[in-house]
Amino acid sequence: MSPSTGSGSSKGRTISAVVLAVIAIIFIVGGIVYLAVPAGSLPGFIGHATAVVHGKTVPSTGHHPLRVAGCFIVGVVFAVAAWFALKYKGKAITPAGSATKEPAAH
User: Fold this and answer.
1) Domain count, the chain
2) Looking at the domain assignment, is residue 2 inside a domain?
């Protein structure tokens, strides 16, 4: 087997960076939705909340601050991971046979 030349690695890094960036965008948009929309107006699958006022159940007018913070934090983590997937370059690994050896001193 020959070591990878970098083109496959680059393609894999690009694909993983795109996937991570899409996930980051989804979480950041989710955080914006949690911040902008009152909890009572959210769809049920993302946290619709109700409150009991004078014996009646009404939609909550509050927000989900922990979910806002969580979405933004996770979004930023995924964005940083996407950046590292594209920009980070590890140490080059040289095959054991190609290491340069210094001549022995006489």
Assistant:
1) 1
2) no
User: Does any domain span residue 1?
Assistant: no
What is the distance between the alpha carbons of residues 91 and 106, in angstroms, rounded to a whole number? 34
Q: pLDDT tens, 26-44?
A: 999 999 998 888 877 777 7
Instruction: Write out the residue range of the structural domain in which residue 15 sits.
Output: 10-89
Beta-bridge partner residues of 52: 57
Is 5 among the domain residues?
no
What is the spatial distance between Cα 8 and Cα 73, in angstroms, rounded to a whole number? 31
**How far apart (Å, rounded) are the C-alpha atoms in residues 15 and 9?**
10
pLDDT tens digit string along 50-103?
777 777 777 777 778 888 999 999 999 999 999 999 988 767 677 765 555 566
How far apart are alpha carbons 33 and 12 in whole angstroms?
32
The pTM of this model reads 0.68
- Which ranges in 1-106 belong to alpha helices (H)? 7-36, 65-87
Whole-angstrom Cα distance, residue 75 to residue 35? 14
46 is a domain residue: yes
